[in-house]
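Thread: quick sanity check before group meeting

JM: Hey all, I'm pulling together slides for Thursday and realized we never actually wrote out the predicted structure for the chain we discussed last week. Dropping the sequence here so it's in one place. If anyone has concerns about the input, flag it before I start.
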Amino acid sequence: MADKNQTQTPLTDEEVHKMIDKHLEKADFGKMHLTRGKIVTGKVVKKREHEILVSIGDKYEGIVGGTELKSDDVDTDALKIGDEVMVYVLNPHDDKGQMILSIKRTGTARKWLMLREAKANNSIIEVEVMEANNGGVIVDTGGLRGFVPTSQLDSSRIFRQGEQTRKEDVMQTIQSKLTALIGEKVKVRIIEIDREKNRVILSEKLVTQEEDIAKRTETLKKAKVGTVLKGAVTSITPFGLFVNAEGLEGLVHISEISWDKVSSPADFYSVGDEVKVQIIGLEDDGKRVAYSIKRLQKDPWADVIAQYKVGQIVKGTVQKIVDYGAFVRIEEGLNGLVHISEISDELVLDPREVLKVGQELELQILSISPTERHLGLSLKRAKSSKEEAVV
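JM (edit): ok, ran it. Output follows.
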């Protein structure tokens, strides 16, 4: 017969995780059948040199001793009588009738349990920044990797209040400030935890903006698509503005900032600017909120249709030149395209050889498209009309 104390093959991480899941179901330990490999929580009832006695439920006591006391996650020397500790059952009943337990072999299972309990209790945990990328920072949660998205970092870390950010270096600014966080300790709360996908998503904002939590709860009670809120710009990215409106953080996409063409959000707003926003998307109990600023502003196209007509001569300024023509601004919020074929009666192969950005032109309106919000313009026809008028 094999020796009951003979070393057995350790369980895989997956098997250990399954044991943790069963433990989290809060089974009645007084009635459970303890077998090798189970992971349970007990209380320290006695400490001796090189071993501790742990009580599990009302009926079981086991011994943790020797190398099984060593753990990178638990300071076993600091354990006191009455402290709770997670243990792994090595042998439910040895030759002396004792239950042999291990703290060492709970491994990563303990880390996942601690994170799940922290999320359930909405606890604050301290993590260390290990890496940075354009999306945020990767942190060490105490043996497991977690991720804090840029949008969930305190905005003052990325953009100081009132800071002006040029469009050409906004990405470089974000990356350099995220990289500067490597090695720093950050206090966070857990937003999402998924052991199967090995994913832990964290938020610093839920800690630093503690007062926003109560506001957010109240705002969510009244929030729906169409609701108008007052807020402030908390950060600026190339794809839009993050706005905290009455405790509810959301994104104003670049396409929802203005009726005018927006190339860089930083050209329109700065961090700290007060804005009114309208909710246009609300998902996952407020975890994803889409705002619009422009929908609270008058749509200039209503005036365009009333004030302009096909054949009319208008003045405009060249904003951008492309291979197929030039984009021209007629007035705030009103732009049009002069197609390459409408620049001159002569053959034009490259619009850049004829036109320059900033150049003022007289143009004739060829078409008005309210659905596409677009004017078709002609430079050559405006010139012809002018020449005919002179004659």
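AS: nice. The first strand starts at residue 39 and ends at 48. The domain at 13-110 is CATH 2.40.50.140 (OB fold (Dihydrolipoamide Acetyltransferase, E2P)).
JM: adding both to the slides.
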